[in-house]
Amino acid sequence: MKSDKKEKTFVTKTRKQFNRLDELPLYDRSLVNYDNYNKRIGHAGVKYSMAVQATRGCPYRCFYCDVYKTTLHHFRRSVDSVFDEVKILADMGIKRVEFIDDIFNVKKKDFVDFFNKVIKENLNLSFFFPTALKGDLLDKETIDTMMAGGAVGVNVSLESASPRMQKVMRKNLNIPKFRDNLEYICKNYPEAVTTLNTMHGFPTETEEEAMMTLDFILSMKWVHFPYTHVVRIFPGTDLEKFALNHGVPRKAINESIDKSYHMVTPTLPFKKEFTEKYKLKFLKDYVLNKERLLKIIPVQMKHFTEDELDQRYKSYFPSKVKGLRDVIKLAGIKENELKVDCLKEDHIEIKDMSKKISKTFGSSKIIKKSDAFKVLLINISTHFSSDRDVSEYDVLEPPLGLLALLSYLNRELKENVRGKIIKSSVDFDSYSELNEIIKDFKPDLIGVSAMTFHKDFFHESIKEIRKAGYDKMIVTGGPHPTTSYEEVLKDKNIDICVLGEGEATLKEIVQKLSLKNDNKYLVYEDLTKISGIAFSQEKFKPSINLKQAASS
């Protein structure tokens, strides 16, 4: 346990991560209404998909990422466990599966074994990897196997083609091998939809190094969706320290955090004009290359609906282009030059999804006690429709982290806990709607999760909850509260930050609170005994008796 006197926060003992992920319950998909999500486009850029997580954490230490700080160790589920979940989804009629792991292909044997099982069972699924495979860990065998197993969306991340920047950011990609693997996919599997992620504007990056990355993109002629994201510097990352040490002002970092990735930011090491010319060349010479588009768009139309492609393409031209048809016009392509139609939605739609999920997953069938402890879990990740930046790549996924939490609570506490999961813009699209849900549900505890990108929205939402009269404990978790708990706890509306994995910690909080007569608040002595949390010592002070005991 440690106390930070300056910030007056108390951080309890680090909670040990779950290292046997097979022992955790599968996401109970009945805990959210998938009808509210499936018709919307998710992280993989598609609708009617199911997200699966085979791992937790990441074994790498890239300095721009906070994953290894929020989840210290990298653990994997067994191949059989992952396959069994995927088969359950396939048996329900799901046709698209996305793996949301930070890196799914870290262990070659597991990667190959999984796809061999899929091939053997002839599951006939389309697989997507929106959070990227590690491109230099692939080889011909793994590529051939995953393609035979149904891989459609293959996402790889380069970030920078500069060897120096690779070392600086601790990514340390084998760039020649990365290139060979990507070229192999593009050449031998033209029906696969490839995505290449790069980043622009790292502190100390030179114009020459930036051009190395652009030249790499331009040389990869048949990549479907290349991206060049302007670097965001998030709190708690080693990139933040690096930036500050190399003269990037704190004010510039703060101003940039919640800006869209296509926007020029004050943290860039280049002149604004250079970045604007860079992006223009990228769009003109690559994205709008007529020869390239004539080859790849027919492939994309076989795999994606028109509105899915609209979402992808408008993200390149947020202010001018509304979708695929506008891109075709800009590139000088006539629609009759494209000989195929976009995928029809009825080819991917799952009939009676809610019924199938309810039948397959079980906690909704648990009969709860009338006095069961009520937990409301809120995901703050998508702005209300009235406030949303229409230029943003608007994706919506069920809040899987909260699904994991409530699935665990239901298994461990059974009829003694009653949980509800809601997500901004989906289950509530205004503060009045949010507070109406709270009023109706009457939770004994509210848990709120958020990423740093949405931190202002996160704090404003909690403020509105308190203004409406909620007077019980509010617990926060997720990447932002974990990496920036001192900042988060300056908000007096917040009681606890859960650090890292939340299942066991939340269970302990619920158990301790349920023993209180009014279910309202824990005291200092309770909190110090719960591993994996931080709280304000100004808000929670030791009792007089404890102080007296300490002095004597």
Itemize the secondary structure elements and their pairings:
Blueprint (H helix, E strand, L loop, with lengths): L1 E3 L4 E3 L37 E4 L2 E2 L10 H4 L4 E2 L2 H13 L4 E4 L8 H14 L4 E3 L11 H9 L2 E9 L3 H6 L6 H14 L4 E8 L6 H13 L5 E6 L7 H8 L4 H7 L15 H16 L2 H14 L2 H9 L9 H7 L22 H8 L12 E7 L20 H14 L3 E7 L7 H11 L3 E5 L5 H13 L5 E5 L1 H5 L1 H4 L7 E3 L4 H12 L9 H4 L5 E4 L7 H8 L1
Parallel strand pairs: 3-6, 6-7, 7-8, 8-9, 9-10, 11-12, 11-13, 13-14, 14-15
Antiparallel strand pairs: 1-2, 2-16, 4-5, 15-16
Helix pairs in contact: 2-3, 3-4, 7-10, 15-20
How does this structure look, described?
The structure is a single chain. The protein is of the alpha/beta class and 552 residues long. Among the domains are: 289-349, no CATH class; 366-551, Rossmann fold, CATH 3.40.50. The chain has 22 helices and 16 strands. The chain has helices spanning 67-70, 79-91, 108-121, 140-148, 163-168, 175-188, 207-219, 238-245, 250-256, 272-287, 290-303, 306-314, 324-330, 353-360, 400-413, 431-441, 455-467, 479-483, 485-488, 503-514, 524-527, 544-551, and strands spanning 2-4, 9-11, 49-52, 55-56, 75-76, 96-99, 126-128, 151-159, 193-200, 225-230, 373-379, 417-423, 445-449, 473-477, 496-498, 533-536. The strands form three sheets. It has an eight-stranded mixed beta sheet with strand order 1-2-16-15-14-13-11-12. A six-stranded parallel beta sheet has the order 3-6-7-8-9-10. Helix 17 links the parallel strand 13 (445-449) and strand 14. Helix 15 (400-413) crosses helix 20. The chain is globular, with a radius of gyration of 24 Å.
